[in-house]
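During the second year of the project, the team shifted from modelling isolated chains to modelling whole assemblies. The rationale, set out in the original proposal, was that interfaces cannot be judged from single-chain predictions alone. As a representative example for this report, we include one of the complexes processed in the last quarter. Its constituent sequences, exactly as entered into the pipeline, are reproduced here:
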Amino acid sequence: MNLQSEPVWLLVSLVAVIAFAALNAAYLVWVERKGAGHIQRRIGPKEVGPFGLLQPLADGAKLMSKQLLVPKGVDPVLFKVAPILVLVPAIMSFVTIPFSETLVGRDINLGLLMIFAFASVNVLGILIGGWGSRNKYAVISAVRAVSQNIAYEVPMLVIVLSIVMVSHTLNLNEIVRQQAGFFWHWNIFRLDLSLLMPVSFLVFFVCMLAETNRAPFDMAEAESELIAGAFTEYSGMGFGVFFMGEYANIVIGCALAVILFLGGWQCPFGVASGWWWFLIKLYALIWSVVWIRWTYPRTQFYGLLNLSWKILIPIAFVNLILTSAQMKLDNLF
Amino acid sequence: MSVFAESQTQETFVVNLGPQHPATHGVLRVKLTMDGEYIDRAEPILGYIHRMHEKNAEVGTWAQFMPNTGRMDYLHALAYNFGYSIAVERAAGIEVPERAEYIRVITCELNRISSHLLWFGAFVLDLGGFTPLLYAFDDREQLLDLLETVTGSRLTYCYYRFGGLYNDIDENFVDGSRAFIKRLRSRMPMYHNLVTKNIILMKRLIDIGPISAEMCRKYGATGPVLRGSGINFDVRKNEPYSVYPELDFDVPVYSECDCMARYMVRMDEIDQSMRIIEQALDKLPDGPIKPEKVPKLIKPPKGDYYAAVEAARGTFSIRLVSDGTNKPYRLKLRSPTFSNLSLYEEASKGMLLADALALMGSLDLVIPEIDR
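Output from the structure prediction step:
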């Protein structure tokens, strides 16, 4: 059987992508809880299996066996559609992520564009969930999530635009291929392409935290203000799917950061590149996301918007202009 | 940077914050009339944990009310024990031996530190920082273990008796207290570096939630709220009781009137309490912990008596009316948080929801003490 034949590869990649997303969502919860435990000088989950490794399975069984409560007064269709709208786009985005040169679901030329298109659907899911819940806390949270996502999508896209300009392609695999060799060929260190590359990585990372509603920007789920935000009325697997969607989005965000800035599956020393390097970089970045969550208090909502509109967006545009000027100069001489 | 809503004729909506809400730390219910995320009116509604403590006092003997005092402000229970003991001792004319007074001050201040540590953790938790809570609890745990060895309980203490104490302290307690102070001294810089100087925390506290001295006067706010508004008032200094006049300590006062000022007052009070405990441990005299003779059944002479102490949240005072029998005729309690909460409606007007919750956290509310 030819694995590369069209229908077989479609099926294999679909199953693999869903399995990868689900496995990551489950075990990132474990990483999060274990990491939080050690940061807070406690042990974290330890009862279910060795080091609590079976905890995600127990959690999953609990969530699935619980009744999916649909409270009176909610909009039943929107209420049920919302979790799916959060999870499915995140899983779709995995299709174009190049884990290695050959290990990629679909090596399409518009991969980057596709990921951003699907990432914008995510916030729609939160909005619909909050609105459909008919709960005042949920509505406040949904509105916050929308304005936050709009505010942070702008600098993120402008930063990505400058990367696209220097690499002349939207194909993720091609972007990684251009960063071959030692680690100073990674985009983050390519000062010859744009002087502000490290800064733009930082801006991208901050925007990624905000896009995925992670602390310190977890406005949508500010538990001390809005109880559980848009997810207040959800129970059982409805809540579980939201959760999986959140973690899948973190993986996507970190994967993009690795691909665009940190050389994707390229080895830092130019030998034995492959999917293992991609995963090492990916999980290192995800760990830093967990680390940040358990270290910082939550920002103020207007502080968050100020950060985006007054600091990050100007930096992003300056970066864009500088990059284009630098490209023009390179062409001249 | 207090942001006031433009009061155009917009639709407002009502949100019930509580009685079960993660930020109200108990069964406080605040009825919020909101204009978007701005608060138009925040009306605290009480009564969810009313237990008739004042009426309870009238049906039992004087001594039987003592355990009730530990169940009002369960975080600084010893100050309430202290206040009630002083009031009854004044009424019945009971002398307290010096050793007992010193032990009272030591245990009361240890309890104040544990109360402030818990507030510190819970306040940062309100602001979305989860981790400091567990570090503060780690320290507080040592304190509770220490107090448990002499008082027999960990939270709702009933340690003081009229004229003295239930139990004497031993070498282990003295050494334990000194070891704890040494430990906490080494931990305070860590708290300041990781939490106080955190840029996000500073942005959320500085210039947020202004409470002016005038507002404090209007509503009778006391304690760290008042001292965070620039007024130097501390019952331990202004109406000295027990052996506080013999101990050297400062009253931290900040005049910025914002959440950060109240935060800093409490953090500095932890340092001052450690100073008080160290001095009291050095000066601790030998002797009895109870007077020679205390009548089994106390019958204070007819009259009106008053006592006030500085609890962790402000001035706690008691007015006693005795009709000469073995039961109080009337016992009126003045608990600090009730007054501190009263100013919430005025102070939170026009604030954003998240800022208003930071303000609420900075008031350090203990609900069972508001609803007695």
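The interface with chain B takes residues 36, 39-42, 136-137, 140, 215-216, 218, 222-225, 227, 294-303 of chain A (CB under 8 Å). Chain A has a mean pLDDT of 84.
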